[in-house]
């Protein structure tokens, strides 16, 4: 059936035409309602929509523009709430729950931490988060709840995002010391990238395939062999909201796991290891781990077995 005749795709296209006609994407009742409807329309995972198999140019063009609009709106939303939360007299980190998607970040960061723990034998001392934003919630949640002795270096192209973000953590006795901010385009971050055990690449860094692959190639060039790259991708209808990262985009890396949540965590998580690391680093993996999509944030590591239902797992191999 032609994709644009698909009822859900028609609903997404209708929401897209309303969103693309908005005067501004800054938070307002109308903007919040439309994006709330868009997210709930794209959340179901029981559809057979595969955006990579859409040939209808109109739908493909709509998707690439919609991803950009979502990214722009997400930036404004973070700016808006970071300004409010940062204005509290006491420690702003006591008020993070005011951010509408705070619970999603609690679940996404727990999922990413669980995946990291499945594939590494030691606690990372230094992490880089590329594209941290005005509300660097991934870094804050990881530092506060999962990695109490890790320093997180946050990179963002936007100096205002970093100013808002550093204000959020400035009055926290612990995170003010463990959260460092750098203003730079990821493509200009060279020296020092080989000092990180783990590098996260935000979903909004590289909003189309070409720029995503460019960022990944840059990181592959400058990361340490054996270091872990955590990326965010999308699957099914959710790929109308965020770009997809495929295994074939990760040349120079060994893709360890691609995990597609089936709850309200929108992003899929991709974890890969830069080739050339020590055998010790590789042996710290527990085989070719694959994960079954599940609602709970506890990730079930299942050693790959050919008998697994293909549709629920993706097998990985090193990409030279
Ligand atoms: C809105 S944040 C989302 C991340 C989210 N705050 C988190 O904690 O997971 C994404 C950020 O990526 C930044 N960004 C986009 N392209 C970038 C690039 N090429 N280099 C560095 N930062 C970039 C944007 O300025 C934006 O602030």
Automatic annotation (TrEMBL):
Keywords: S-adenosyl-L-methionine, Transferase. It catalyses: 3 S-adenosyl-L-methionine = nicotianamine + 3 S-methyl-5'-thioadenosine + 3 H(+). It comes from the Eukaryota. Its EC number is 2.5.1.43. It holds the Pfam family NAS. InterPro entries: Nicotian_synth (IPR004298), SAM-dependent_MTases_sf (IPR029063). GO terms for molecular function: nicotianamine synthase activity. GO terms for biological process: nicotianamine biosynthetic process; phloem transport; pollen development; pollen tube growth. Signal peptide: none annotated. Belongs to the nicotianamine synthase (NAS)-like family. Synthesizes nicotianamine, a polyamine which serves as a sensor for the physiological iron status within the plant, and/or might be involved in the transport of iron. This is Nicotianamine synthase.
